[in-house]
Structure formats: C-alpha cells, structure tokens
Design goal:
Glycosyltransferase_grp1, Rossmann fold, 8-stranded parallel beta sheet, alpha/beta, Glyco_trans_4-like_N, glycosyltransferase, 14 helices, 2 domains
Length: 399
C-alpha cells in the first residue's frame, strides 16, 4: 500500500534528534517493515538522516517566514499543497501527525489515521503565539470527522480531542513505543552506578531535580544527562555551584542512543509536579527507552507513568513492576529512591528485567502500529507497491 506520512508542524524536523522526530521515524519504519511504500510530506526536514531511512522519499514544503501571522497562513497553504501532491502521487492511505492548521486528511478524502500527541491549540495559546484562534478549531474538527481513527498518545489527550471536537467516535488512546531492536540491555559500567536522564533540557522535564538529587544523595553514584536545550547552561552552573561532576552528553542522534545509554544502571524521569491533572498528558518516550534498555526507572507519579511502570492504573506495585514512583518537584524523595536502588543490585536487576519484558510485550513500535491499524480497521499486511527508493540518500523534493 502507498502510505503518505504527513507532518505540517514546522517545529518537528523529520530527521531530527528530539522525541517528536524519533516518533515520526519509528512509525515510518514500522510501516516499511510491513512492506508498505512510505512517502513523507513535511514542512521541516532536518539533517540527521538515519542510515536505514536514506532511501526515503520526502517532499519538503518550506514555509519561508517567521512572522507568526504569516507563518499560520503558510501552514494552511502547505496543507492544501500537500493534499494535492499526495493525491497526484497516487497515495492510498494517509497517516498524519496532527498540527494546528492542517486539513490534509479532510481535503484529500482518503482512508486515514490522525495521530494527536498534544493539545496543540491550548499549548500554542499558552506558551507561544496563536494569532488565528478559529482556524485551528475548524481544522481539528474537520480532521477528526474525516479520519477513520484518531489516535492519541494518552487518555488525557483523547479527552481533549473529544471535548474540543464534540466527537467521541473513533477517538482512541494508544501509548507511545520504543524500538526494542535498536535499544537493548547492556551491562552496567564498572565502579559507581550511573543514573541517566534522557530528554530535551526544558523546565517541564524536571532535570534540575535530578541534579539536586545527586547533591542530596547518601550513596555514591554518577549522573549522566543525555540531551540539550535552553536549560543546559543553567544546569551546568547549578552543578558547579553544588560542586558536582555531571556528565553532560548533549543532543545525540537516535541511532546513537544505545551507545550513550550503555553502562547505565538506572533511568530517571523526574517530571515536576503539575499545576493541574491535565498538565501531564504526554506519553514519555524516555521511559520506554529506559525499559527497552533493561533499566529500572525512577519516575514521577504523574499522568500515565504509574500504569506504564506498575502495570495498572491504581499506583500499586505488583510482581511485574519495573520502577519506583516519587512525588514531582521533590529532589530529596528522588534522591532517596535512587539511593535505595543503588544499594540493592538484586532489586535493580529484577526491576530492569521486568522493564525489558514489558517493553517487548507491550511497547514495541510494531505492536503500537498494529494496535493503531486495528482501531482504523485497516489490514497490516503487505499491499501493492514496493518499499521506497534505493538511492544513496533521502530523495528530498522541494515543493
């Protein structure tokens, strides 16, 4: 089947290093693994092209402006152009990552899945600039009505879609996944246990609490931070003030993540305490990566994290638990939880083994896509057409 993967969001490069880019790439891989031919239509491309996606055909619809109002109009124009182009290319099915101004699914009229990762209208109005408030509302309502299924990364996002569109039909929550073939368990490094954080260094990831927890620790462990972002300089200054040696690795390409996770003993996801329950709506890729790596996870008791780590929604530990939950914005409790795992290698090993098993059983990208296609009532088998081009680099067309 000829699949059109669409992303009109100018904040997400197809070939980038942040979590959203990883998500894009992994869904594409999962489709290609089923034998489908995938063509990408996007407003931002990026330069970190993985080796196995070098042959991917990509149509680039550059926006060409940074003025907020003009940029919103440019996204609507790109959406119209993408719908026209993918129909001309003979697409048979659309998989679109939701963006504010896109109506590609509604305009193209093909069988489609809409993937919603965040309440973007609320986010844009609260944290950035939203000039035209009516067009995004109209767009998501049209898109949800037209899609065979709207797939949301958490129940919180699904509820936002239902309330925003007034449409509860065909709206489903499917958590994110992880590439369990790329990320696999590796031995702990010799010497002090390594506690690792992965993610963009922004306030809502709580990385500061990980640094402060290291200063409060009563056992001896090293802190490794994989990722970059606007908080990095401040975090480095904090580490200096606290007289800590923290291993800042910077941003790494997804293909290099296994190398940087190597030697880790524990993974941390210290999200801050939310101001309200709806604040934590995302499905944290870092947690799934830790699990695939066979790491016990220390994470904030927030959103869907308890269910992922404990296997139920009641926050009660069972025999298959793969992590420890703490309160958000509490560096001391975080330090105590890490210290307890550092002092108990056998518990670390058991939680890590449980984590890997749960990642394999429930959270591989192949199983995530299979669930999505079941909701859309689409067969997952091979369709007509081959798998992409076989050129030396990605076939990027400027449209």
């Amino acid at each position: 089947m000829r699949i059109a993967y669409v992303c009109v969001d100018p904040g997400i490069p197809v070939f980038g290093t942040k979590g959203a880019s990883v998500h894009v790439q992994e869904i594409i891989r999962a489709f290609r693994a089923l034998g489908h031919e995938v063509t990408v239509y996007a407003t931002r491309i990026g330069k970190d092209v993985p080796e196995d996606l070098q042959d991917l055909t990509v149509h680039h619809f550059a926006l060409g402006t940074k003025d907020p109002a003009a940029r919103e109009v440019a996204q609507q124009e790109a959406s119209a152009a993408i719908a026209e182009q993918l129909l001309a290319d003979g697409a048979e099915f659309i998989y679109e990552r939701y963006s504010l101004f896109s109506t590609v699914i509604a305009d193209a009229g093909l069988p489609a899945v809409l993937e919603v990762n965040a309440p973007l209208i609320d986010e844009q109005a609260r944290h950035r600039v939203l000039v035209d408030r009516e067009s995004p509302l109209s767009a998501i309502r049209r898109q949800v009505r037209a899609a065979q299924a709207t797939i949301c990364v958490s129940e919180q996002v699904a509820e936002w879609v239902r309330q925003t569109t007034g449409n509860a039909d065909r709206v489903h929550a499917v958590a994110n996944g992880v590439n369990t073939r790329r990320i696999t368990p590796q031995p702990e490094a010799a010497g002090r246990p390594v506690v690792t954080f992965v993610g963009t260094l922004k306030p809502w990831h709580g990385t500061e609490d990980a640094v402060r927890a290291r200063a409060l620790a009563t056992t001896d462990w090293d802190l490794r931070i994989i990722g970059d972002g606007p908080e990095r300089e401040r975090l480095q200054q904090l580490a200096d003030v606290l007289d800590l040696e923290v291993d800042f690795r910077g941003a790494v390409a997804p293909a290099e993540m296994p190398t940087h996770l190597a030697g880790s003993a524990i993974g941390v996801a210290p999200y801050p305490k939310p101001s309200e329950a709806s604040d934590h709506y995302f499905s944290p890729l870092k947690v799934y990566e830790y699990m695939a790596a066979g790491l016990p996870v220390v994470a904030t008791r927030i959103g869907q994290v308890p269910e992922v780590l404990l296997g139920d929604a009641d926050n009660t530990t069972d025999d298959g638990a793969c992590g420890v939950l703490v309160e958000g914005s509490n560096a001391r409790e975080l330090a105590e939880a890490i210290d307890a795992l550092v002092a108990d290698p056998a518990l670390r090993a058991q939680l890590g083994a449980n984590a890997r098993q749960r990642a394999e059983d429930n959270h591989s990208w192949d199983s995530v896509l299979a669930t999505i296609l079941r909701h859309a009532r689409v067969g997952a088998g091979r369709g007509p057409g081959g798998v992409g081009h076989t050129e030396a680099g990605p076939h990027v067309q400027e449209d």
